[in-house]
Amino acid sequence: MIDALSGVLIVPAVAAALLAALPNYRVTARLNVLAALLTFSTAVSLFFVQSESGPYLLVDDLNKVFIVLTTFVGFTTSAFSASYISHEIEIGRLTPTYVRFYHAMYQVLMFAMNLALVANNIGLMWVAIELATLTTVLMVGIYRTHEALEAAWKYFILGSVGIALALFGTILVYMAARPVIGEGASAMVWSVLITRAAQFDPALLNVAFVFLLLGYGTKVGLAPLHAWLPDAHAEGPTPISAVLSGLLLNVALYALLRFKMLLALNPAALAPGPLMVTLGLISCVFAAFMLYRRRDIKRMFAYSSIEHMGIIVFAFGMGGALANFAGLLHMTMHSLTKSAIFFAVGHIAQVKGTQKIADIGGLTVTNPVLGWGLVLGVVAIAGLPPLGIFMSEFLVVSSTFVREPWLVIILVFGILVGLGGMFLRLNTIAFGEPRGPTAPAEASYLPMFAHLAIVATAGIYLPPALVTGFENVARLLG
Amino acid sequence: MHGLTFDIAHMLAGSLVLVSFMQLYQDRLYALLNIFALHALVLAASVGWQAFIQDAPHLYVTALIALVFKAIIIPMALHRIVVKLGIHREIETVVGVGPTMLLGMGLVALSMVVMLRVTADADPLAREDLAFALAVVLLGLLMMVTRRNAVSQVVGFMSLENGLVLAATGAKGMPLVVEISVAFSVLIAFIVIGIFLFRIRERFDTVDVQALDRFRGERR
Question: ipTM, 2 decimals?
């Protein structure tokens, strides 16, 4: 029985095995794109073909949105990765053996993320997120430079601690569910848990949620626990930075949202909202200030990801149909924009041979397409109208202003500080005196501009079908 | 079921916390690895006892994994790495032994207060186990934070995982899926670590994380 739901798992799994076996890197790069496209079309078909949730796999409105977003960005990133990797081989930064490994790992990562999204079992979901973490650790360290090794080690240690705390939280949720549902596997199944959550022991659920928030929050990159994120983004291959920022953070967030739904159903348990709002605000303001002192271009955009994850967690923490809608929209827009920026940054770093902001300058003159692409991306991520992120940030602010004006003022302060930091750097990177090598980039611009086009359109017009879909999910999140 | 069975389970879980404390003040890598082997041994005994009193045969598998894999294979392999790299000398700690022990005591007290309070309705064995497990997890974390050497950080991580296994077995009837995954994740973690150690060896002549810190990510 192969339906679309298991399809999003089978395709990447088969592709990973195939890519590990094939030696020719040109073929594997194309195959990687093809597999990602196939996964994406399978994911889209989830909307049209009814899939049944089983004891292990789950499909509902919430994870459909996440799956389609994940597989879409996974597909465009694989297209970007093909042109990025061929350049890395030319300059000898990666050997063909490593590229073979890289492509196989890319598909394993897609498999792990999809598994985390469709898992109907809190234990299975935990395993999938751990698998995704370990895969990205290996990929971050792939250049084997001092910096890459340090970044991978740090990511590994912090990621493991996070994942260990999350497991402890998962065990506690089982402990809370056991007296109500009974022993055995069904006390870990989402669709069972969600129907009985009201009867769980609230004290246990509270402690469990704190562990889960700290554990999965580490993977989301929330502020006191974010230390791994900038290093991992800066030192790994750029396609991995795009996938980390655009997708893996979302997957961890998805786990958090599921547990939040569980807690929200239990009237006696603590409200998860204020905790998430606090962490979100800290992340947003902290990361906004950190944007100012960055000297590495990828590191700067990594901090911007922390800022935006903060905004998203803030929105979901506030809750309510409108704020959830805004958070969901912001998450989608952020994924698309940030990965587009990383596509541009990847090619820029290849042209200039460096990631140091000081050595990159006047891009709009030397490489107009890349330069203006980056400008457009930064304008979008900074939240200027009329692009998509402006829309979603406006919604976050306006939907929560009536309820908690003081909190929103802090949030807006963070956003504005971040905007200033971004533009300060953008000014030297994109305009001003040209610096560094000026060779034209051999790049495929299609993925970048496809993303930016979607973001620009979303700022002006959202298709009604999308709005209804997001509204359904927002209601589901409560 | 109260009485002797409870006392033995209680003692084994408590010893695990005690061995965690012993790890904290080891200042030589060989000694640390030996104590870790003891840690895994106590875990195996504890899980085995749980399997017996819960009448859950699948837990014997978990106990066996802990015994063979964590108490024998991993310490031996790490031993060889230490010999190969010639780093059996003293472990550099960030914080002195005294403050570390005090912090450790504070963490144990914290986990007792938190877990015993929230699990008031659960059966006594499970709540004692959970409280001890949380203490072991936190002590493992403490060890990872206070050590600079990569090998001892790994040992800290593995003793943290031991705490998780204790928690998972204490939660009665928790599906096997999870136990296997825990053991499996340790396996994967070990492979990753092995690769890392050898890669680090290629680039540097030390596994002291402090040496890695010199190549700060933020290049100035």
Answer: 0.83
